[in-house]
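Sequence decides. Consider this:

===
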Amino acid sequence: MADGYPVDLAIDYPDRKLNRLTTFFRVFVGIPILIIIILLMGLSFNYNANTNNSAWVAGAGITVLPLVLMILFRKKYPRWWYDWNLNLAKFALRVRVYFYLMTDVYPATDEDQSVHVEMPYPNAATELNRWLPLVKWFLAIPHFIVLAFLGLAACVVLIIAWFAILFTGIYPRGLFDFMVGVSRWALRVIAYSLILTTDKYPPFRLGV
């Protein structure tokens, strides 16, 4: 990655026909792993039958604000925080790839499978500007806007790919590469603005 962006994503193209049955029922088949990723990254619903009260409880998610403070005041990026963020991002990508129908192998919680992420551990003292984490979310707004439109396009591509797999068992290569590009773009923006592993501004492109 000497001449490219320090964060990259590669997804293996299926070397065989995909399972039509699990593709057809993907939304239902993927519910268990979807619940797990929601609990890890998002919110969990808590209902108390005795008081008839309900509430949303925050999950762990990606470590952001503590990391901002650590880089700002200590110029450190704790290795275990990096490991947590990286592995959570990898797991989320495996779930995403499964729901994108790009594989019919059920997402593992601890194996890379067909998803390969490159996100080097940063030397916070020499490679990260202590002040940038305060504004990275703002600087990344143009990317968030573009990704919103790309997400809409990805939904259309997903529908087309679903029909293609049901009739042929094959994910059209052009559509597959587009979905890889969207996922790569999103990962780079997340690595820059939330995981904070690099100060290099993400490129506006789908490719490497």
Q: What stands out?
A: The beta strands are 8-11, 43-48, 53-58, 115-118. The longest strand covers residues 43-48. The chain is about 55% helix and 10% strand.
